[in-house]
Amino acid sequence: MDKVKIIITEDGSHSLYHEGLKETYHSFHGALQESIHVFIEKGLRFWRTKSGLPKQVDIFEVGFGTGLNALLAAQFAMDNEVRINFTTIEPFPLDMEIIDQLNYATSIGQEDLKTVFKQLHSSEWEEKIEINPFFSIHKTKSKLEEFQIEQRFDVLFFDAFAPSKQAELWTADLLQKCFNLLKEGGVFTTYSAKGQLKRDLKALGFEVETLPGPPGKKEMVRGIVN
Ligand SMILES: C[S@@+](CC[C@H](N)C(=O)[O-])C[C@H]1O[C@@H](n2cnc3c(N)ncnc32)[C@H](O)[C@@H]1O
Fold first, then answer.
1. For 21-35, how does the pLDDT look when each residue is reduced to its tens digit (9 = 90+)?
2. What is the pTM of this model?
3. Which neighbouring-strand residues pair with 128?
């Protein structure tokens, strides 16, 4: 694992700076705001609303990292009394020493989420773990390139490092893999709004939408499997 350094983003929530890539794990304009906007509101809530508010959602995430998206999905599950099965991959898990310093429960304004956050990180890898009646997590130490699973998902959080830093994760081949991981009506959501990404998603058969981005970012992209 390359060295990472904790930083405070503009909404007061933490993120990490990856010294090898010279890249942050979230938007400098606000990690919490970005995750809520891109993944929870434009991904999870959008899919659930358009699907008639089903009581179960299967989510797949590329890049578990700090676990912020998983924590917000767990909060959503508990608040809405929806069952969420969260499957995530991460080839470079962070040290607990870093995790223990992250201020996400406090930034969200819900101290009781500290326990959930700790559970998400301390839960075993390579196994589906029930965190509570509304939320399970299945973490796999794998790269997207090598990951194999039979299951299909309703929502896919594509949270890789930026295309300028990790171009190998934004190729048409791996986007095809993401398309194949989704069920019909499934939603792919990401913070990037690159023209090439939009063209590739369209060519794969996604219905592509360019949406307003989180604070400080003009646009983001969502793809729907129709
Ligand atoms: C932009 S960070 C976001 C992480 C996380 N969602 C968060 O909120 O902290 C990208 C993550 O992708 C992980 N990653 C790097 N290479 C990867 C690969 N080949 N496949 C899947 N994930 C990868 C990184 O280690 C990092 O944790």
1. 999 999 999 999 999
2. 0.98
3. 138
